[in-house]
């Protein structure tokens, strides 16, 4: 009886562990648990497994918040520690996932030396290159999202710096790496677009106030924003209602880089049938002031929606009516102008779009 009781407790504990997975930081994803003093040479980490839960290669530094680099003070957004990847350095962690499931990684990164840096992000066999030459926040830190589909039950998550700087210590700071399972929504009778409210998307760190950048689809085979493609040269920003003003629900998209920042989706339509595309345009309550214009495209029609922002939140609604000329209709949104925040004149910002709906116009019925 005692053996049966112990077995039952073990089984319950195992089930609880299996079901207790929640979206959030990877184990030691904020690097608060660091190497032992014997595994450090100055700031350089010595030993492949010196950082708990991680495997490192190349020149990796363990950085404490407030540490100085010349005249620059290094700031860490989450907790007190981060890692810096030198030339050809990488960090890796194994993770159990569900085969066939979609996931999104979110991590924070900051440049420290070079004017242009890139990061290779990979979950075998998928990989992508994220450019870091454009800064979107005045703090120097940005959060990035990158998505993948699990092809095996155990994957290696790798972030690698391919840089070739003269100073081997130069390279990006990495902190706060999280994962989130994605559940791609389907279209319905209430909306022919998928994820038109943007509620499904990457993990947003609760302790950061700069949103999450979603890179162009040419750098990401699987979008962290299910249903949507980022068809532009620069990223769009995924924002939440805890830190920004969002027209509807808890999530929205900020078009932060003018015409270089666009999102699109292809919807099934019937040739000759009439449709209405409705959406909300606003500002994120982030000191993004001035007249902003969102351009919406559907079929052969386009509309420009001006929005005068005081940078304190608010929105307006707009509608684009069109007749489908194909069985596949591309719906796209972009911002006409570049805009900078009025409180620092350094951070790119732009209009917010949300609550996007595509519906067919029913033909009126005539009764005799």
UniProtKB/TrEMBL annotation:
Residues 24-180, 191-358 form the DUF642 domain. InterPro entries: DGR2-like_dom (IPR006946), Galactose-bd-like_sf (IPR008979), Pectin_Meth_Modulator (IPR052437). Residues 1-18 form the signal peptide. It is found in: Secreted, Cell wall. Coiled coil: none annotated. Its main location: secreted. Keywords: Cell wall, Glycoprotein, Secreted, Signal. It comes from the Eukaryota. This is DUF642 domain-containing protein. It comes from Kingdonia uniflora.
